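## tool: complex_structure
## caller: assistant
## args:
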Amino acid sequence: MSRYEVYVTYKQGIFDPPGATAERALANLGYEGVHSVKIGKYIQIEADGGLEMVREMCERLLANPVIEDYRIVTEGEA
Amino acid sequence: MRFGVVLFPGSNCEQDVVHAAQTLGLTAEYVWHGDTDLTGFDALVLPGGFSYGDYIRCGAVARFSPIMAEVVRFAERGGPVMGICNGFQILTEAHLLPGALLRNTGLRFICHPQPLRVERSVCEWVDLPEGTVVDIPVNHNEGNYYCDDETLQRLHANGQVVLRYCEPDGSLASGGSAPNGALDDIAGVCNERGNVFGLMPHPERAVDPLTGTTDGRPFFTAIVERLAEVAG
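## result:
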């Protein structure tokens, strides 16, 4: 069994309302020089079957390729 | 003429759709998400709600329900399918309609009557003249329509943009009239063939005069008339 971490984020150019709100809120708190905040999803998976299967799961269910990119990090044996 | 109203765990507008159909003298019956048979249905409606709790993304889990393989086959044979609100989200996730529905730009759940402008389209579900303004409630948190530039051009070129959010007089505000940030004020789109239609507003809630307006009626009657003509 392997452990994977999947990061799902909006594609470049797609407006991310929660990220934009966090960005404004940070500015309101007085933080200067915050140029961008993006909010996405973080998914932990423990599975047999290998990276290719995890990629397929991302394509079919965990991410929507129309609006989202995903990045898989293999964390090694669980 | 029988409408099938596809019921997913978490759907919550199915009774409104059945009530709307019955008010108009039409027959509508529920189809369970676990069913695999659509025999005898002439048109399908995927109602609004929160199928599977909106987990992962709205509609992302529902699209893998057993019935959805049959819905896809029904649509591919030219059968009329309308997805309302969550039903629209499910149809985009199932790739029966282009694009996706993102979170409303204001981060608010919106719920109010909404003027909509009918565009010239190939949609089989709509038979209203271009420019007609209808008043129909919206009720959603993820109704911000998005597609890439190439898809948007194709939608306009093919007549697949069916409804747009507008001002009460039918005009489009320069900064956009969509209450949710939708691209190009798009409230409803159809597929290239025109038989699959998705919209965020709820026409079923604008059928009975008790609820304020009857502007939603044509969205159920036009397809019935069209099917009757085809059956000849």
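## assistant note: Strands of chain A lie at 2-10, 41-47, 68-77. The interface with chain B takes residues 14-15, 17-18, 21, 61-62, 64, 66-67 of chain A (CB under 8 Å). Handing back to user.
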